[in-house]
Structures are given as structure tokens and as C-alpha cells.
């Protein structure tokens, strides 16, 4: 797919076919948030105050983990302004929803709304995009990581999903902190540290064993659920010069009851077309996309998408393919030859290590590294 269109091009053609109410905030989403808030509060109190058998604590932890993740999905929707429009209320509710995941609303809107959505799958500008061969050549750490055999790396990559959202959030704080005005930096830091102070205060109150069930294990579960979606959103798609949601995004399919519990977070292409629209209406958006551009739309079951991620590397080669640098195995991306039902690779004609060395030399020459 080389004929890219910006998301506004699609939105302009589709908007006349959508009801006006689809572009209004849906405050009723807060009832779901209230239900999860009560579950989280009740679960933490039960673990903290009662001397339950570890099996019961484990079951409560699972419920807490699912609730942490679901609140994060709602917080994502709130901070896009699709639930309430009043800025201070939007940020307050978003902060509460993201509290278990320890992500502040001001940082999230800068990182996710203003940067990721504007520059989706741009090699340099998208903070969530995976590296290209050029970026690999610049990073000694990445070159070391990609010397690890692919099966081992894939195992650890999937295991790391249990902490990745938390780790990436901290990384984004360092990445974007200087972009905030001086008067906002204190707010960003306060929004980051307050949730952590709350959870560490809980640790001090109830001790390690109960804290493991009340917060840490649920956080790992929530990370795994959230990253299960996020890892499939774009990582099988190509890097693109134009922010084209039908080229750079993937919607996954999950059982209907899961969509209900997760606020339709699986509709990711739809979200990138209409980020300011409540996800309540994304099934309708999907219907129109599949009628208007059926050959451009990418969707697959969540399990199949995760399996495809396991079988493919995460370094981009010439933007439209994925490469395993050590062996020189090259895989397609969605819209560029990747068949999730039968994932195969082609052999790079030139030696992969030689190519990486060449890219390193090109980067050094361009950046002046090594000059006196």
C-alpha cells in the first residue's frame, strides 16, 4: 500500500454517514468507571483488612488486575475528551482512572494525544514506534539486544509485557519533561509521584505479603492486558510517511463481552480515525470503513495478532518490512506481504551484519561522530 491518505481524509468522507450524536461526549461511560472503582476499592480493602486464604487473595488480585486495566482504557477515553469536555473535570477523572497504572493526565495527553496520534508510525516522531535499521545502528544497547537469539528474545519480549506499560510511562516522563513549560513541570511531577506515594503508603500500612496481592500482582496483570492490546495496535504495521490509520493501525477482534468490559478498546483503527469520538460508536465506524475501503482495513483475532508478533522481529527494514538483524530474515508487514496465517521470511541478499555496519558508518558520517 503506497497511496497513503491522512486520517482527516478518511474522516471527512465518513463523517456525513455518521449520526451527530456520535460526536458528542457520552457521560454514561462513567457508570462503568464507577463499577470498576468500587471493585478496586472493595478488593483492596478485602485483601488489606481480612485474613483470607492465599487462593482467595489470588482471585481478588485477578479481579483487581482486570479492573486496573479497564480503568486505564476508560482513562484513555476520558482524556481524549469523549466522556466529559470540561478540562479540569476531564483531567481529574482521567487521573483517577489512571491512578492504578501511575500515569498522570498531563503527561498522557502530551505523549499519547499530541504526539503518538499526530505522528503514528513515524520513524522518528512517534514515541511508541519500534526501531528501524538506522536507529539500531545508532544504539549500542539495541545492537546488543538484537544479538540474542530470536526465540529467546521473543520469550522475554512477551514476558516483559507484564511491566512494559509502567516502564514506558516512566521513560515518557523523561522524554517529554523538558517539553513542558516551567509552570507545568511541577504539575507533571506531582501527577506522577502522587499515585506512587499512595501505593507505597499502602505497602507501609499492610506489609509486603498483602501488598503483593492488593497492588503489585494486579499491576502486573493490568500491564499484561493493556500491553496485549497496545502491542498489536501498530507493531505488525509498516512505518509510514503519512499518518494513514488504515495503513499504520490494526483492529483486533475479541469476544463481545470483552469489548463491553474493555470499553471497545479493540477498535484501534477506528480510534485513530476519530480519536475525539466515544468508543461506543466504533462498531458503526468499522461498518462504514469495511463498506468504503474493505481492501485497506486490517483486523484479526487478538490471538492471531499476538501469535504473529511472536513469530516476527521488531526492527523495521526499509519501513515496510521487518528484519531479524542477526540472520538477515526479512518479513512483510500488514499491507506489505505479511500473511498472519502463514508467516514466512525471505533471505536478505546481502549479509545482514554487513548491512548493519554500513548503516552505522552512514550514521557516523552524517552525524560527524569520530571527527576531531
TrEMBL record:
Annotated transmembrane regions: 30-49, 55-76, 150-174, 186-206, 212-230
Keyword Chaperone on entry: no
Lineage: Bacteria, Bacillati, Bacillota, Bacilli, Bacillales
Enzyme Commission number(s) from the entry: 1.14.19.-
GO function term, MF aspect, one: oxidoreductase activity
Species of provenance: Geobacillus thermodenitrificans
Entry-linked Pfam families: FA_desaturase
CDD domains noted in UniProt: Delta6-FADS-like
Fatty acid desaturase domain mapped to chain residues: 56-300
Keywords recorded for this protein, A-Z: Membrane, Oxidoreductase, Transmembrane, Transmembrane helix
The name this protein goes by in its record: Acyl-CoA desaturase
